[in-house]
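Our preliminary data section would be incomplete without showing what the modeling component actually yields. Below, a chain of 613 amino acids is followed by its predicted structure, encoded as tokens that our downstream tools consume directly.
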Amino acid sequence: MLGRTDSRARLLFLLVGFVVASVALVGRLGYWQIARGAELATQARLQTSIRTATPSRRGAIYDRTGVVVLATTVDRDRVVAAPDELTVQERPTVEAKLRQLLALEGDTEAAASLAERLAEDRPYVILARDIEPQTAKAVRAAMERGELPDVWLEPEPVRVYPQEGGGPDSTLAAHILGFVNREGVGQYGVEQQYQGLLAGEPRVVLAQRDVNSRPIAESAEIAEPGLPGSDLMLTLDAGLQLALEQELFAAWVADRATSVSAVVLDPYTGEVFAEASYPSYDANDYKRIAAEAPSRFLDPVISHVYEPGSVFKMMTVVAALESGVVTPTTRIKDVGTLRLDGGRTKIDNANRKGRGWMTFEDAIAHSRNVVAAKVALKLGDTTEEAATVLHDTWTRLGYGAPTGIDVAGEVAGLVRDPAAREWREIDLANGSFGQGVAVTPLQLATAFSALVNGGRLVRPHVVSSVGADAVAHPAARPAIDGTLTPTYIDMMNHVVTAVPFYAEGTLIPGYFVGGKTGTAQIWDPEARAGRGDWKANLFNYSFVGFVGRETGRPDLVIAVRINEAQPTIAMVGRLEMPVMSFELFRRIAHDAITTPDLLSPVAPRPAPATPEP
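Predicted structure:
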């Protein structure tokens, strides 16, 4: 007879097992329903919801007066459709009507794109963007007549630049402003640099979706309220900016140059009153420019470097006067050719002739390469020491580093450090008159500002306020010995008064003017099967100078560059064009100094700066 298989211990064990399992299940259920219930509900809701982010209204951009609108946002319409709701019979009819209304009959590519989008089996398709108000009115009328089933209009913001530029196919201050792409992101210039402030924060809405994945309006709730974009006020004066662009366009045409650029700077504050280049572009038509000539978007004033030539002699002046190796009246013998490096290399004056004994200030005025090189060689007991002194002067004046202007796309330039690679005498000589170094026009304007403002290196800037708040830009820092400022000013004034050729093209009756010219050859690295050579009869022409209402006190610094221009008179030591760089400076200077309400009353001159050790 078989024994009993049940027992009290076994039953108790099973009971405990069931209790433990039940407690575990209840605990787990409680964990999901209580501890993580809200989280799971949110996730479930998100799976059946649509998250819509609507960009905030982008801030406008004004000139320094706060009146002239340089960039703003307007509402246009886009055409959208639900192709999955269209019947086979409706699609060709809708397509034909839209081709007519959107004027696509002659544009085979656009018409094909429209047909392709209408053929998609999707509940939401954008058919056309940024349509003109008159076209939108015609589309709306066709919708009301029932000619465009499952087609509707939606508003969308469009960035516009309402001010025409100073040359054909351009908008005002295009290089400074940049543009905004279709995704609402700023590209180049101020639009890119201040993207976050201009764009603000989007408004985010969560809504349940229907079977066609469309949001149900009744279920919508705001997840993030968003933040409107901030308006910007620039330091630019719209009137001066337009005049500057017109001057550049005229010089570009007359000189048949590749490009012409200029910047007008307050040497005491770093405010950029005007800055432009031509060719420029129409920011309202950026898509065409992107397809045809995207290099137009780069701003030559801050994004292109070049060998400046003899304008750089003023940097040699700074190094020489601070070192005490010469004074403006020191006499130096000018010879036509100077042999260096034991006779293996040489430099020449532009006319390959010497003028004999002359003062240092006369040599700078007449732009004698040989004298500049001789002085540079005296900056130290050895070539290495002299190179270190000259290079140190360059870096203190900001060369080889971005100026820090609040515009996207600035480059640092190219300045070779003698500590990294030893200079020969020819390197030192070439550097003394602006060869073998690459800079931007803005770097030149900033450095010359330090020469005339008491030795301080300013931070150039184009934005003065964001909304109602003024922007606090970094203060100018001591860079060079400010006690020598009157000497630098006198020497630059001497350039335009001692040389009749410059005086005739530069001086403005009733105003105080000074500056330095520069003419430089252009190296072509692709010439001679990649071995490189100088471009034939093409030069860069520069002038950097100042203009003031009072003798001895500059109000503005202006840098001008005429790029790759072919002289109409080309002789040894004489290269002339219809509009010379110093003549263009004079025109711009006159426009600037006579611009109403641009300049503040003359303030006391700041104390000279002492460079930091």
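The chain has two domains: 52-84+95-135+151-229, 238-278+299-593. The domain at 52-84+95-135+151-229 is CATH 3.90.1310.10 (Penicillin-binding protein 2a (Domain 2)). Preliminary results of this kind motivate Aim 1 of the renewal.
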